[in-house]
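>> received
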Amino acid sequence: MDGLETLSGDYLNLIRRRPLRPIRDDHDYEEAVAMVREYRRSPRQLGGKDDEENAYFAVLETLLSSYEKGHFPKPETHLRDKLWDLLTTRNITFQMLAAIAGMAPSELARAATDNDVLSPMADYKLCQCFNLPHGHFRYDIRED
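>> returned
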């Protein structure tokens, strides 16, 4: 038994479509971005996706972030400044902001302190909630 019997068909289809391996070039990157966009727009994402699919996209976003760090410049505006702007103009707490982003407050604080970028999913959630252009908290994946 090789363990594949326990994986869902949807997960195996994702693996067949784009195996989880390092992103090698811009074509590979654009293909992965297209899959993440498709996943974001899928009505099943709102709670209907299984753990395997969610895990697949979590790993794919990690691979995208790794590629982006080596191929895209850092944003000119610090992440902490963008978050601070949300906190002060929208009158919300840091804990609320972290919850909206789907992150632990400590994880969001670390990203802000290190001037890191948010994951594509955290960026998407914040941008949707606050009606900001997608990619506002990143320097890479931007919606068309």
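>> The helical segments are 9-17, 26-41, 51-71, 79-89, 94-101, 105-113, 120-130.
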